[in-house]
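[Discussion] Sanity-checking designs against the backbone

I'm trying to build intuition for which residues belong where. Below is a structure token string of 118 positions. I'd appreciate it if someone posts a full sequence so I can compare it with mine line by line.
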């Protein structure tokens, strides 16, 4: 017939009670450090410079005034003739004006650039 052997339970391994920095297991600390370092590098190489550019763009938008020469995102060069909260009116040729959103302005040019460019 069938012979069934006795099954014996194994002893549980001893619990590792050693804790390291912030109460973490020293073995798990080695897996956390690379993630922290990757986030720090990501912050200083990508996030921080982008925030700086956004701040500069916002300051430029607020400083726009009548007579400034600008370039829009579509590549249109023009002189500002009117400024409102959301829109600006550009004179792109003598007697030709277009209305664009303030957010479409990408570059503020030095005075006299349009005359030298044409």
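Best answer:
Here's mine. Compare freely.
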């Amino acid at each position: 017939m069938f012979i069934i052997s006795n099954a014996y339970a194994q002893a549980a391994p001893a619990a590792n009670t050693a804790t390291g920095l912030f109460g973490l297991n020293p073995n798990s600390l080695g897996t956390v450090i690379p993630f922290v370092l990757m986030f720090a590098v990501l912050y200083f190489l990508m996030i921080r410079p982008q925030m700086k550019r956004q701040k500069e763009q916002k300051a430029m938008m607020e400083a726009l005034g009548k007579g400034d020469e600008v370039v829009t995102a579509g590549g249109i060069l023009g002189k500002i003739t009117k400024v409102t909260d959301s829109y600006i009116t550009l004179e792109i040729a003598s007697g030709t004006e277009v209305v664009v959103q303030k957010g479409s302005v990408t570059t503020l040019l030095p005075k006299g650039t349009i005359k030298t460019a044409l």
